[in-house]
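Regression check, adenosine-5'-diphosphate case 262:
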Amino acid sequence: MLTAGVDIGSLATKAAVMERESGRLVGGSCLRSGSTPAEAGREALELALREADVPRGELAATVATGYGRQSVSIADSTVTEITCAARGAHLLEPGVGTVIDIGGQDSKVIRVDADGYPLDFALNDRCAAGTGRFLEVMAEALETDVGGLAELAASADEPAAITHTCTVFAESEIVGLLAGGEAPAAVAAGLCRAVAQRTALLARQVGVDPPVMLIGGVGLNREIARELGETLQAELVVPGQPQLVVAMGAAAVAAERVEARG
Ligand code: ADP
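Current build output:
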């Protein structure tokens, strides 16, 4: 059986086409959400179907999730991203105990039971600090992009101390550090450490039960993953395509719903 999941995030929209029997991702896509989430959802699904080389009619079901899920008409049903993150992470790592999802404008930590269902979660959606958008703004101040930020950080001897986590204050702090002669690499490393430490505080609110999986677009930043694993002193797994895990979880929920109907 083939099913699809569409995850409409605040910054990026992702789609995953999955084969139920093998649990394999056969097609995936990721694009900017833009101002019309419904359009982004349709486009992401089309791209994933094209990559999978599957006609839309072969999908047994499609589930939408994420911030913009209600606006999507291509889906048969919707489900929260908390459930999808748990289902997707469990699919990839059946023993996973804690899922940390750092996205564009929020971060979540979800404790997952042995069957891959959420037990408890903590959410930071009040401010951009420690999220993907924060990193985008800081990368710009360092004249690079989010991909370049991790690379830059990895080349630092010692991370600079970043005291502000508010996006506005941190940006002026960085400008000040650079003007004072601090190396851009050290500033980038300091930013990665600050995001990891902030995320660890959120994780401690719900409790950390290893193995821990880091998902969401920020999972692509290896420095943050390394710092987070060290701060939590826990085994931290980053899947191959961390940004697609929630969409994969949505596709798994779609398959479960078809099976439940019989
Ligand atoms: P959302 O679902 O909330 O829209 P995502 O989970 O898709 O967010 O994450 C988006 C964030 O991922 C971006 O703001 C950016 O910081 C980060 N990101 C995207 N690509 C990369 C990359 N190549 N390296 C590091 N970080 C990345």
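Comparison notes: Residues 9-12, 103-105, 132-133, 135-136, 146-147, 150, 216-218, 220-221, 243 surround adenosine-5'-diphosphate (CB under 6 Å). The first helix runs from residue 37 to 52. No diff flagged against the previous build.
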